[in-house]
Write a structure and sequence with these properties.
Helices cover 67% and strands 4% of the residues. The protein has 310 residues and is mainly alpha-helical. The chain has a two-stranded antiparallel ribbon with strand order 1-2. It is elongated.
Amino acid sequence: MAEEIQEKGVHLTKQDRLAVFNRHQYLQGSWNYERMQNGGWCYAMIPAIKKLYPNRDDQIAALKRHLEFYNTHPYVFAPVIGVTLALEEGRANGEPIDDVTIQGVKVGMMGPLAGVGDPVFWYTVRPLLGALGASLALGGSPLGPILFFVLWNVIRLAFLWYTQEAGYRAGADISKDLSGGKLGKITEGASILGMFVIGALVERWVTISFKPVVSTIQQQAGAYIDWSTITGDAEGIKNALTQYSALGANGLDQMKVTTLQQNLDSLIPGLAAVALTLFVCKLLKKNVSPIVIILALFGVGILGRLIGLL
């Protein structure tokens, strides 16, 4: 049977590769603590294995080969599966490719690619699309969540398909590119861009307001609206609005009250929000449970509200 395959040759068609592509959407469907993504990986490879190895014993051996340990970012493993398809195709056509070679390429690629997935997808693409969708939603547009969902999946699926095809065309040679500096530059650039995006989101979405009053000062005449001179007709309302536009919020009352939050904002707007975000990041790096952090923030918020701090 092997000689017959080698003589005639067997190749994966685009339809076969699409079947693999459709299946590797479920890479983490059977994630486990022993071999992690091996079940999802093996499930994705089944259409190719059936096409390349008509003999049942060869199919069983291939399935066992792909049930070994595997784990990487779920969106960047597509080039690995593409390379693996090329290797399996070569093996089915008689090339000297053994189990060790196939597993070695998989393991060798999954580590570097795992480091690319987080900064590119979780720290860059997803926050950018989320911010865009949230901005539209806050403006009252129902397109916000729809746009986020559609764009995210278009980008994700296109990336998975084209990188799988690139891996299949490049074959085993793609693993040599990972030893160069190009992958590191991509990771570094994506990380920097992601940090800018997260910084902008922190200033917009994280809000902390300290209520304690620092000072109360009586303002001079003309620095506030003299409500005794404001009539109740349209002209009086117009006059009040004109003065408010010129004087600002401090012009509403004769006494100027300065809070701790106003002092902080005069130094660096959003300083408390950034400090809290960095503190939470530090806790996460120390392996503090996110659930514990969330509950602690709830507790601090409630306590701060009760004592008049927040």
